[in-house]
Amino acid sequence: MIKAVMMMNTQGKPRLAKFYDYMPVEKQQELIRGVFSVLCSRPENVSNFLEIDSLFGPDSRLVYKHYATLYFVLVFDGSENELAMLDLIQVLVETLDKCFSNVCELDIVFNYSKMHAVLDEIVFGGQVLETSSAEVMKAVKEISKLEAASNSISLVPKSVSGWRGR
Amino acid sequence: MSSSSTSIMDNLFQRSLEDLIKGFRLQLLGESNFISRALEEIRREIKVTDLSTKSTALHKLSYLAALHGVDMSWAAFHAVEVVSSPRFQHKRIGYEAITQSFHEQTSVLLLITNQVRKDLNSANEYEVSLALECLSRIGTHDLARDLTPEVFTLLGSSKAFVKKKAIGVVLRVFEKYPDAVKVCFKRLVENLESSDPQILSAVVGVFCELATRDPGSCLPLAPELYKVLVDSRNNWVLIKVLKIFAKLASVEPRLGKKVAEPICEHMRRTVAKSLVFECVRTVVSSLSDHEAAVKLAVAKIREFLVEDDPNLKYLGLNALSIVAPKHLWAVLENKEAVVKALSDEDPNVKLEALHLLMSMVNEDNVSEISRILMNYALKSDPFFCNEIIFSVLSACSRNAYEIIVDFDWYVSLLGEMARIPHCQRGEEIEHQLIDIGMRVRDARPQLVRVSWALLIDPALLGNLFLHPILSAAAWISGEYVEFCKNPYETVEVLLQPRTGLLPPSIRAVYIHSAFKVLIFCLRSYFSAEESTLSFSAQEFSSASSSMNAFTYESILNLVNVIELGLVPLSGTHDVEVQERTKNVLGFIGMIKQDLAEKLNLQDSETEVFRVTAFMEDVFSEELGPVSATAQDKVCVPGGLELKENLGDLEEICGEFLKPVDSVSYTDKISFSVSKLRIRDQQEASSSSSPPHEASSLLAEHRKRHGMYYLPSQKDDPDSNGTPNDYPLANELANEISPDPFNPKKKPNQSKQRPVVVKLEEGDESRNPPQAKSNIETVNDDESLSRAIQSALLVKNKGKEKDKSETNPNSGQQEKEESSRIEDHQNSEKKKKKKKKKNGERSSKHKSRGRNEVASASEQVIIPDYLL
Known about the structure:
heterodimer; A: alpha+beta; two-stranded antiparallel ribbon; 7 helices; 7 strands; about 50% helix; about 20% strand; B: mainly alpha; about 70% helix; ARM-type_fold (chain B); ARM-like (chain B); Clathrin/coatomer_adapt-like_N (chain B)
């Protein structure tokens, strides 16, 4: 099971955080800070694993990847494979790249909702359900379409039309 | 302005999430100010009846909660409102807020059941997906129970997009509501034969989780899983199947034989490192008895170790440390790579290599490995340096210094550790120095030498972390002063002015040790006098006495040095230091006059002779290690009332002891009283009573209460008149605790291992008992696993009918068939066992009654399997 997905920039600002077990917000913030404080002390070109039993309890593992100004972090337990999780980060980043064509930190900052749509297609309730970015893209496009459709109706709310008609 | 027009204004001028994020980046107010203003806005907007406004406000709140730690539990009801909106966008925002902030105790959780059901039945697959996601995250017992029919329907959905998520949600539903297993299990298992990789991946993932919780319950599915293992070429699926088999093999060893070959096949075939690593891990953790597989796995590990990729190197080391306990040769083969990894730039790799090195330590290579490690410790950063020191310390002290043969070497090593610049493990080193002193008689001379070297090193006094070590060194040079080459210098070192840098508690140890040295010197001076005067032929046997030929002048000098060093301390503010100082000065006061007059020192009637003899008796009682459980072994004497209510005490000291809470009042007092009593006893036996009496009392006590306190050896048990009727410590230890970990000790070592006093228990009291927690977890999952088992029985029964219709004739199938029989028989046994266990309780539950019926019919079916 995946326990948490985080993205943060190299200054430690969280850009996305999802915990698959319920946790009070204070605890979430504490964990994000804890993870960042370990991440930022690590040199480049070392392994992508962290021992984080002290933060997430026994039998928890963490993999991360550093792209440009962002850290992508996955926390999971013993029923996932470490290298497969690294691949999963790759899948996530590839998908985002397709989504935003050359993804950068700002895309992630301003597309909070879409980020979640992408992530929810890949990880479902802590389980990895989709690893093909094409499939994810298909679903995300559908969701955007649906949202846009429901939005276009709401562009002219009933009450507003009356107000305009005056 | 009417309320509707307010809502219009709000809607028109409401800031969207994007506006909020932009504002956040441009704000000059400071983050917390900005957030509190945004929150104010949200609180206002979220109350509006218009769902668009409400949902936007909720969306902003979710954002702030996820990334800025803002509490959003107060908006739980608004989330329920938003989720009921017919518009997809609102629904999505609502569900997201719910999954993010709801938990078991959220009161409005009850209100969403119908909405979730409605969405699960929706024609729009994306709405269904939202509801499923929500259920998989926050599903409670009630939700799972009420929505099981919907989940069952969705498991049969024709859309893969919905079906895979329905499979995923099953895990949460089973966990919260085990009875759902009866409904959904068959449909779930059918998917193991699905040709769609997405579906297969999802279902294998679910079984992986179920197997983690209770491997036994998934055992009957082994044939289906085996098929997946052989046929699938999807790495994600294979990794999960391997994980399942690793769990299953732990409860059913015979399964290992079956899966070893296909796993090796994958290892040889695949280029995906993740799959190779998973195969390796499965082999080394669960199939470690299959030699060929282990050999192949170790070969793969070696490939990992020589890779440049630090991830592979780390995982390779990781796998090696799993394999180490059973196949040490695998580690030894890769020793070079492991040692090389110690200087890797990656801290993970270094740590893993260190753990591995420590796992291969034994009595033959301990000095070599320690030497390598000490060299690395000198070069490393402070954190890793201390990890090294700690590893060496704990490996060497394991099981009462089991792997140490040459204690002189080990004691010197401890001394070296103290000199490593980053060393912060002072307390552990202190403990071991003293512990070795008490346990290993033969190591004492070297201990005293090492302590001396530590005490004279001026650099150590300034290092806060090393103070405990100095304390131990001071104690050793006082306690074992008979091995000291130059007591005069020892005293000088113990009382040097720079000891002012030490904390008072350690300074007190220094002073007390100086006192012990003084007594020793006086005593050996007198006995030398005695022997020369009486012209007795008896040589003073102590080896040190010839070295320490004290003259009258040297003794006088010594007393003067001590007095000079201590007088300034008699006015310190620390009571401990002051008391010790006063003790020594008082003693010196008693003897000084006699010494100065140089009169009849050899005469046993003089004050100085008597006092010295007395003090020497006090210090001569040898200290031994005490078992952590020693107190429990002392049975309470007949007349002692431990649980008596000490009401009288209240009258006497009521005004001092103001109880904090009345409940624990008596407990506290009786505890402190018993502590006092123990101290009294200790003092009685060690100081105030004459020593001969004390030791005979001790012998008496031992006769009555057995061995609870073991000195290493009595100095000479016959001379003091006590019957030597208790076994020597070491014999006793050997009798009581024959070392189970090391049955074949080498009979003739080049250097005889000195006697190490070992207590039968209490030495290794650090391992917490784990059995209990295991039992608890089993209990947690019991209902789920029972449900799965009964579902499996029903399924197998169903299959039976299919089997009789179809004709299994391919070779592949035959093979599976045989494995099925094997597995089946095992599971049968298991079930019977389980059944027996549950038998007494079965009347409570209807479902369990069914279980019994099922297994009864199962027994009849057995012969049919042997088609």
